[in-house]
Amino acid sequence: MSVILTVATTGPIATTSDNPSLPTQPQEIADAVVEAYELGAAVAHLHFRDEDGAPTADLAIAERTISLIRDACPILIQVSTGVGLGVEFADRARLVELQPQMATLNPCSMSFGGGEFRNPPTDVRRLAARMQELGVKPEMEIYDTGHLDMCLRLIDEGLITGQPQFSIVLGVSGGAAATPENLLTLARRLPADAIWQIIAVGRANLRLTAMGLAMGANARAGLEDTLYLRRGELAVGNGPLVRRTIALADALDLQIASVDETVGRLGLRA
Ligand code: KMH
Ligand code: ZN
C-alpha cells in the first residue's frame, strides 16, 4: 500500500523569528505547497496568516491562498479548522464553507502549550454535521486517549461516515507525549478500517514518522510539525523535510501515493 504524504507548511504557532523560512503569506504558502507537490506530496494541510503573521480564519486570505495553489497544481486541499488558539470556533468552522476536499476536526478542548484550544462538544458536532453536508472529508486529530473515544462516539452517532481518517498527534504540551508507547496505545485502538498518520511535534518528529511508516500509516512533513532538520539545524523551508520523509519511505521500500490514488483511497469528491 502506498503512503499518502501531506505537507504542513506553516501551522499556527511558529513565527519567522523561530525560522526565517516559514511561509506565512498566500504566495509564500502556495510556493511551498507547489514545491512539495512536485516532490511527491498529495495533500496540503493549510493554516493561514494575516499580513502581520498572526493565525487567521479570514475567508478572503484563505480563498486567495487556495486559488494560488489550485492555479499551479492539483494537490488536494485540507484546511485546518484548528486555525490558531486566539481564533473563535465559529470563525474557524466557517472555513469549511470554502468546500475544500478535506478539513481537520479537533474533537476536544485542551491545554495547548501556554494557551487553551477550545473545541466545545456542541460546536464539534455541529461542524462534523456541516462537513458531512458539504462533502468535506474530516481528518480527526487525536492528541490523547479520550480524544479517540470522542471520535468513536461521533462515528457511532453517524456524524462521521465512510472510512474514518485520523491523525495521532503527539508531543503537544497538554496532549500525550511523543513516545513510541503512546503511539502504540493509540494506534491499537483505532477502528480496523481507519486511515491514519502520525503528527509528531518537535524533536521526536523523525523517529515517530518512521515508526508510523513502518506500521502502515501515512506521513506528514513540514515546518508546522518541526522547525529543525536535526538538533541545532533549522530546516531551510519545507522542501528538506518533505524530501527527508520521501527518503524514509523509499528506504522502507514504500511508494508515495499520487493525487489520483489519494482521491480514491480517501473517497474524496473529484
Ligand atoms: N498543529 C498540530 C499539532 C489542525 O491544524 O487542526 C495539529 C494540527 C491540527 O495540525
Ligand atoms: Zn494544523
Structural key phrases:
270 residues; 9 helices; 20% strand; alpha/beta; two-stranded antiparallel sheet; globular; eight-stranded parallel beta barrel; TIM Barrel; binds zinc ion; binds (5S)-5-amino-3-OXO-hexanoic acid
Can you tell me about this structure?
The protein has one domain: Aldolase class I (TIM Barrel, Alpha-Beta Barrel), CATH 3.20.20.70. The chain has helices spanning 26-39, 59-72, 89-94, 121-134, 145-156, 180-188, 205-214, 239-251, 259-266; strands at residues 5-8, 43-46, 48-49, 55-56, 76-79, 102-105, 110-112, 115-117, 137-142, 165-170, 195-200, 218-221, 228-230, 233-234. It has 270 residues and is of the alpha/beta class. Helix 1 runs parallel beside helix 2. The chain is globular, with a radius of gyration of 17 Å. The mean pLDDT is 98. The protein has nine helices and 14 strands. Bound molecules: (5S)-5-amino-3-OXO-hexanoic acid (KMH) and zinc ion. (5S)-5-amino-3-OXO-hexanoic acid binds at residues 11, 80-82, 104, 106, 141, 169, 172, 199, 201, 224.
* CATH class bucket: Alpha Beta
Tell me the fraction of residues in β-strands, as a range: 15-25%
Secondary-structure element order, as H and E? EHEEEHEHEEEHEHEHEHEEEHH
Strand segment tally: 14
Enumerate the spans where pLDDT stays under 50 for 5 or more consecutive residues.
none
State Rg.
Answer: 17 Å
Largest sheet: 8 strands, parallel, barrel
Query: Could you give me the name of the CATH homologous superfamily?
Result: Aldolase class I
